[in-house]
């Protein structure tokens, strides 16, 4: 089995982390396979890939094949990656760290397993690079699958690859994507979407949200290629969760409230987060803010963009999500501590918001944690940060 060639077709003003996240995930999968972390999964494939593709990768104009540190660089286990741009050479990225790229036209005769287009800032002042759009349109049909991270979806859409398909991008740019490309069925909520298309010749296209969603996407690609065990070990090595429940709209309620910033309710939001067990009615919050209930409700909506009740619900749900992901506390205790009052209310809130029961949510979040009692090392991520960066389930 030859190593799968992953090509990152990048544009000027590349958002560096949109490419670095998936690159790191593929690298961690290499480490997991080489170390046999996947309970033997992929080991034979890894050996075959190294034998079949080593010489080719080593003589291929110095393109780096992924390999174990200290091992021969020209013996890829499963993947080899190329970062390429229209002109090649050193490319300035956003926010400024330069990267060295190959010329895209040097890949025209090479097989491409997976084509990934990372994101760039998109607005009226930064038009899409027409040469990159043309290259994607010309070369995408020969790739097994085509992917985008964040606003890389704009390039896929411009190349006509998303027409009639369901696609996502960063929640902040979803409306612009839908407006500029009306033939694309934009869904702003999922962390990523896999669209297999329909009809003769339709290929598989994956689109994802921003930055860390690129890691979620890469883990799903690894799972598709090498199996769940290898993908899980790659996630553990990255110290991230294999799959995240929810959607982009579930970015941190606390941070969303603070984003109203500079407003008169910053201190109130901090107080609310610290007193979730209490009665947080409009009357109580208005008293805290030293306003009449009517004035408070009106000014709050004007400043924050939603009602006080919705903020309270979101803060409670986020606190419960963190408690489930980070502890084994009983549901009854979590329900009381987070202001739901009862387990039944907690269950209803989770089913309504995430479509899963609280214990299912806990199982998904803690599935990437190796219990120290089982001889492993407990790993995880800060759930607050994770949720703030669009916690979501892989849409398959």
Automatic annotation (TrEMBL):
Show the ranges annotated as biased composition (Low complexity): 45-62
Q: Which GO terms describe its molecular function?
A: DNA-binding transcription factor activity; sequence-specific DNA binding
* Keyword Phosphoprotein carried by entry: no
Q: Which InterPro entries match?
A: Class_I_gatase-like, DJ-1/PfpI, Homeodomain-like_sf, HTH_AraC, HTH_AraC-typ_CS, INH-QAR
Which Gene3D superfamilies does the UniProt record give?
3.40.50.880, Homeodomain-like
Stretches assigned to the HTH araC/xylS-type domain? 266-364
Region named Disordered: 45-73
What superkingdom does the record give?
Bacteria
User: Sorted alphabetically, which keywords does the UniProt record give?
Assistant: DNA-binding, Transcription, Transcription regulation
- State if Thylakoid is listed as a keyword: no
Xref: PANTHER family: ARAC-FAMILY TRANSCRIPTIONAL REGULATOR (PTHR43130), HTH-TYPE TRANSCRIPTIONAL REGULATOR RV1931C (PTHR43130:SF3)
Q: What is this protein called?
A: HTH-type transcriptional activator RhaS
Q: Which gene encodes it?
A: rhaS_15
């Amino acid at each position: 089995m030859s190593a799968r060639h992953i090509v990152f077709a990048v544009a000027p003003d590349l958002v560096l982390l949109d490419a670095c996240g998936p690159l790191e995930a593929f690298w961690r999968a290499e480490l997991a396979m080489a170390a046999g972390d996947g309970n033997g999964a992929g080991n034979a494939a890894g050996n075959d890939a190294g034998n079949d593709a080593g010489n080719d990768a080593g003589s291929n104009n110095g393109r780096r094949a992924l390999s174990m540190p200290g091992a021969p660089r020209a013996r890829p286990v499963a993947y080899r990656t190329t970062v390429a741009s229209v002109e090649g050479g050193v490319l300035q990225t956003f926010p400024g760290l330069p990267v060295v790229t190959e010329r895209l036209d040097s890949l025209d005769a090479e097989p491409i397993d997976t084509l990934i287009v990372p994101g760039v800032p998109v607005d009226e002042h930064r038009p899409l690079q027409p040469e990159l759009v043309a290259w994607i349109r010309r070369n995408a049909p020969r790739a097994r699958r085509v992917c985008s991270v964040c606003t890389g979806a704009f390039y896929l859409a411009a190349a006509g690859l998303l027409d009639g398909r369901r696609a996502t991008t960063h929640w902040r740019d979803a409306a612009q994507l839908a407006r500029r490309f009306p033939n694309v069925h934009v869904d702003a909520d999922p962390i990523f979407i896999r669209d297999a298309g329909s009809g003769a010749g339709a290929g598989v296209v994956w689109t994802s949200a921003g930055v860390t969603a690129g890691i979620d996407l890469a883990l799903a690609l690894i799972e598709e290629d090498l199996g769940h065990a290898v993908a899980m070990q790659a996630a553990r090595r990255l110290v991230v969760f294999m799959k995240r429940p929810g959607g982009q709209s579930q970015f941190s309620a606390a941070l969303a409230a603070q984003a109203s910033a500079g407003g008169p309710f910053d201190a109130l939001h901090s107080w609310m987060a610290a007193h979730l067990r209490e009665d947080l009615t409009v009357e109580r919050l208005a008293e805290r803010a030293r306003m009449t209930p009517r004035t408070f409700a009106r000014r709050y909506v004007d400043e924050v963009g939603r009602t006080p009740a919705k903020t309270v619900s979101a803060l409670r749900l986020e606190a419960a999500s963190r408690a489930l992901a980070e502890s084994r506390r009983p549901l009854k205790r979590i329900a009381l501590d987070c202001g739901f009052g009862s387990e039944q209310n907690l269950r209803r809130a989770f089913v309504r918001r995430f479509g899963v029961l609280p214990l299912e949510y806990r199982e998904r979040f803690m599935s990437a944690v190796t219990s120290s009692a089982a001889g492993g090392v407990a790993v995880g991520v800060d759930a607050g940060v994770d949720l703030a960066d669009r916690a979501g389930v892989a849409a398959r």
